[in-house]
């Protein structure tokens, strides 16, 4: 039940298979951090990882004894985020049940919080963890929608289900980045916005 040394080698394979092509750039270094498996579960398991966790942005996965992913989360500071799971008075009943079922955790560090946000979104779409309820439907992230069903192409910011005809680009980490991209495109190309 001792911690393995953190694997500090870049692991780009963790990002290559993610859908949507929103993986961090090739300049990113991804570090997976893991610990030996044990029959423990709950806050003790979470606490075991704190010794090796960096204070950098990244994504974490909490898994049960069958290896099923319970939850995928992102953090600006992995160590600060994960320590919250060891304090039962700071989390609700639903999250307490999730922590109690956790037997293993995996961590992927990223260079920026935006990279972590996009990686988290892709992993949630791919893995569909039962405790992730907010990001399963893609309603949280903005996209750019380009519609070509008129005389002039129309470019708009879009949130929600991707059921309108056209080409979708994204997801973007923030609405301001979508707006900046649309403004740059509008300066170069004659696009209609209405």
Alpha-carbon Rg, integer: 19 Å
Shape: elongated
Count helical runs.
6
**Which blocks of ≥5 consecutive residues have pLDDT under 50?**
1-31, 34-38
CATH superfamily of the largest domain: GIY-YIG endonuclease
Distance between the termini: 61 Å
Task: Please give the CATH architecture of the largest domain.
Answer: 3-Layer(aba) Sandwich
Strand portion: 15-25%
How many DSSP E strands? 7
**CATH fold group of the largest domain:** GIY-YIG endonuclease
Identify the strand order in the major beta sheet. Answer: 1-4-2-3
Instruction: Outline the biggest β-sheet.
Output: 4 strands, antiparallel
At the first level of CATH, the class of the largest domain is Alpha Beta
Output mean pLDDT: 77
What do these coordinates show?
By secondary structure, the protein is α+β, with helices and mostly antiparallel strands. The protein has two domains: 13-127, GIY-YIG endonuclease, CATH 3.40.1440.10; 143-188. The chain is built from six helices and seven strands, in the order αβαββααβαβββα. The strands form two sheets. It has a four-stranded antiparallel β-sheet with strand order 1-4-2-3. Strands 6-5-7 form a three-stranded antiparallel β-sheet, with helices on one face. β5 (143-147) and β6 form a beta hairpin. The longest helix has 15 residues, at 113-127. The protein is elongated. 28% of the residues are buried. Residues 1-31 and 34-38 have low confidence and may be disordered.
């Amino acid at each position: 039940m001792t911690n393995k040394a953190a694997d500090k080698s870049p692991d780009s394979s963790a990002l290559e298979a993610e859908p949507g092509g929103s993986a961090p750039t090739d300049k990113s270094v991804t570090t997976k951090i893991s610990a030996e498996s044990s029959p423990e579960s709950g806050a003790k398991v979470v606490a075991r990882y704190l010794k090796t966790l960096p204070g950098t942005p990244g994504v974490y996965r909490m898994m049960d004894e069958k290896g099923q992913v319970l939850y995928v989360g992102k953090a600006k500071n992995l160590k600060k985020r994960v320590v919250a799971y060891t304090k039962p008075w700071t989390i609700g009943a639903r999250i307490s049940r999730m922590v109690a079922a956790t037997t293993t955790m995996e961590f992927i560090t990223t260079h920026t919080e935006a990279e972590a946000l996009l990686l988290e979104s892709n992993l949630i779409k791919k893995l569909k963890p039962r405790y992730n309820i907010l990001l399963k439907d893609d309603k949280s992230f903005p996209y750019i929608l380009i519609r070509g069903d008129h005389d002039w192409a129309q470019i708009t910011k879009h949130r929600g289900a991707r059921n309108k005809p056209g080409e979708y680009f994204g997801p973007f980490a923030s609405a301001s980045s979508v707006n900046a991209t649309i403004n740059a495109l509008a300066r170069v190309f004659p696009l209609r916005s209405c």
